[in-house]
Design a protein that fits this description.
Length: 348
């Protein structure tokens, strides 16, 4: 069988939640990724270095005993964030960035920023301290077509931010559109982007074919096929501005399959295999290592991993669900589907 060995990958956008959910999902990411950028949109949100270190300790305590997984923490940026917190983030090895959620954009974003100009003093401090800004790039005006929210955020909000703070390191998270790809490609090296497995595998038809498909619902929402093709082209291009970020977001099956329809795809158990599937289909497996293992670390000025991981070409089926103790089940992305690449454990 054909095998592919690459530098161990990192996940630069990961939701782990807390409590019982954290304890049930952390092993899925730790078995394949050496590091992950942990998102701060808990309830209440992680808004300070002190809270981030408490959460960091919870994650470490929840890891399997033999795991070397390293959580990297982001802080939830608000209009009330003290300027002094920026220097604290810069001085702490466990904290790497601030995450900007426009208020109301996604899960647990009510505490997000309503007026972006209100945080300009914070962005100036971040630029000075070289602290990256991670952005959920969508406008939240209810009059806006949901399929246009990313494009309009770039036009109305992100371009002015970049003009005002040209040296600020920015990651446009989970990009979904041709416009986002083109924007990132046109910017200097301090602007990067993460790409998720769901946006590489699916276009918006996957939300509706055969009835409503709640486990394919995420924010930013899936877009039309032309946008998916632009994302694939970016991911396999070898351009170091684009790197792996799963945006894996666990919600119980009961919370996905009801009137809530919580946004988020749970890809953690099969993430690297899902990426390998796309790169293989595009005859670009030679580009997977850069995208998954090198470019994110380079962007954050962190060392590349010394360990390696091996994928084997074999047909296997994604499990239909994963139990979460007595609470219910998590349905993984592409549950029940066949894949042609599988991670060989353990990572070396």
């Amino acid at each position: 069988m054909q095998t592919l060995t690459i530098t161990q990958a990192d996940d630069w956008h990961l939701h782990l939640r807390n409590g019982n959910m954290l304890q049930n999902v952390i092993a899925h990411s730790a078995k394949q990724f050496q590091r992950a950028m942990i998102m701060p949109n808990l309830q209440p949100p992680i808004t300070s270095v002190e809270l981030a270190l408490e959460y960091h300790a919870q994650i470490l305590q929840s890891l399997p005993s033999n795991s070397s997984f390293e959580p990297l923490m982001s802080l939830y940026l608000t209009a009330e964030t003290p300027i002094t917190e920026v220097a604290k983030v810069a001085a702490c090895n466990a904290t790497q960035a601030f995450k900007l959620y426009p208020a109301g954009a996604t899960t647990n974003s009510a505490a997000g920023v309503k007026n972006l100009t209100s945080i300009y003093p914070l962005l100036a401090a971040m630029q000075q301290q070289q602290v990256p800004l991670l952005i959920h790039g969508e406008v939240t005006d209810p009059k806006t077509d949901i399929f246009d929210r990313e494009r309009l955020f770039i036009e109305q909000d992100l371009i002015p931010i970049v003009a005002e703070f040209p040296e600020l390191k920015i990651v446009l998270e989970h990009i979904t559109t041709t416009e986002a790809v083109q924007f990132v490609e046109s910017m200097p090296d301090n602007i990067g982007a993460t790409i998720t497995p769901q946006h590489l595998h699916f276009n918006r038809n996957a939300l509706f074919v055969g009835g409503i498909q709640p486990h394919n619902y995420c924010l930013p929402i899936l877009k039309r096929e032309s946008h998916r093709q632009s994302l694939i082209k970016a991911a396999i291009s070898g351009n170091p501005k684009f790197f792996l970020g799963t945006d894996s977001a666990p919600h119980l099956q009961t919370n996905k399959e009801n009137a809530c329809g919580c946004a988020g795809c749970y890809s953690a158990p099969v993430a690297i295999e899902l990426y390998a599937e796309i790169f293989s289909q595009e005859h670009a497996l030679d580009k997977l290592e850069g995208f998954a293992s090198w470019y994110g670390a380079d962007f954050y000025n962190l060392p590349r991993n010394k360990t390696s991981m091996t994928l084997q070409q074999q047909t296997w089926t994604i499990p239909e669900s994963y139990p979460v103790s007595s609470q219910g089940n998590l349905i993984p992305l592409k549950a029940g589907a066949s894949l042609n690449w599988k991670l060989i454990e353990p990572v070396k």
